[in-house]
Amino acid sequence: MSFETALGAVLKDLRIRRGWTQAQFHGVVSAQYLSDLEFGKRAPSLVILRAICDHLGVELATVLILAGARDEPVVDPDDLLRRVERELAALKY
Predict the structure, then answer these.
(1) Number of C-alpha atoms within 13 angstroms, CB side, residue 5?
(2) What pLDDT score was predicted for residue 55?
(3) For the domain that residue 36 is a member of, what is the CATH number?
(4) For 27-81, how does the pLDDT look when each residue is reduced to its tens digit (9 = 90+)?
(5) How confident is the model at residue 93 (pLDDT cuts 50, 70, 90)?
(6) Contacts (Cβ under 8 Å, ≥6 apart) of 35
(7) How many domains in the chain?
(8) 45-49 contacts: CB < 8 A, separation 24 or more?
(9) Residue 85 sits in which domain range?
(10) Is 71 in contact with 43 (CB distance < 8 Å)?
(11) How many CB atoms sit inside 10 A of residue 37's CB?
């Protein structure tokens, strides 16, 4: 699975969990653009992805970690999160 496909699957899952339609992202992105993202046909800029995450009420980092874990099925999301935490600690952020 490509990262774009994994990212789209995560966005679609989060949208569906909220019971929202693609049309409910009007003012953030068009329904067609969101559909393209959800099917991995497009890759959003970070600015657009952040706006989508804000609309969904989730952190950008959460979506990226979930997509990364879905892109690499052998990686557990919790393991990936621990790795990020170690990297942030090493970088003193």
Answers:
(1) 6
(2) 97
(3) 1.10.260.40
(4) 999 999 999 999 999 999 999 999 999 999 999 999 998 898 887 767 777 887 8
(5) low
(6) 22
(7) 1
(8) 49/7
(9) 3-91
(10) no
(11) 23
